[in-house]
């Protein structure tokens, strides 16, 4: 079954089952927003979904997805910065450093799987990687989370069959060290990749929560270089409405 056909099937299942699983526990997920700041207005990388899928057909999205159980075991070229780990450990429920690493590594894996753009670094005596990490081994790289910044955390509202506890990361486009050809095509999960200026028309049609996160990123970019000590918002629902808290102040 093609990726697009599987996506259509999965979306129909989600739509059908939503009423039968109103209290689905959220799964860890990670999203990566790549930023190109070489011009006067920063650009972000978005991918357009297949027109035939039920969930957000033809919409622009950022690469991302669920954390795999093996993500914490993947060797990396450099550890995640201590400041980044400290931010990821904030909030509730409490998580371990290995889980924090998994989140950062998952963002890199998902970006490479969905866009063919890989954030890695050449290292001596590197381990042999397979599966979704094969492109890194082929290029003589290990994934490198040292250039990631934590932008926001958001949990899918209750009442959905698929609920995610998503951490949104960002990285500069200069961190891209390898490109895999043929990942984006007419029958793939993403059919097109576009670098678009923040505030441009394609971004106006993003999912509302994604637009919230992008707004946070835009405000941080306006203040200068990204920093790990910046406030990280946490979007979640209780009492029937969305709340915006700040990690570390809860």
Structure characterization notes:
This protein has about 250 residues and is α+β, with helices and mostly antiparallel strands. The protein has one domain (about 5-245): Nucleoside Triphosphate Pyrophosphohydrolase. Helix content is about 25%, strand content about 25%. The chain is built from six helices and 13 strands. Strands 1, 2, 3, 4, 8, 9, 11, 12 and 13 form a nine-stranded mixed sheet that branches. Strands 5-10 form a two-stranded antiparallel sheet. A hairpin with a 6-residue loop joins strand 1 and strand 2 (about 45-50). It is globular. Mean pLDDT is about 85; it is low at about 1-20.
Short description, anyone?
With 250 residues, this protein is of the alpha+beta class.
Largest sheet: 9 strands, mixed
Strand content: 25-35%
By CATH, the architecture is named Alpha-Beta Complex
* Annotated CATH topology: Nucleoside Triphosphate Pyrophosphohydrolase
Question: What is the CATH first-level class name?
Answer: Alpha Beta
CATH superfamily: Nucleoside Triphosphate Pyrophosphohydrolase
What is the approximate shape? Answer: globular
Q: What would the average pLDDT be, to the nearest integer?
A: 87
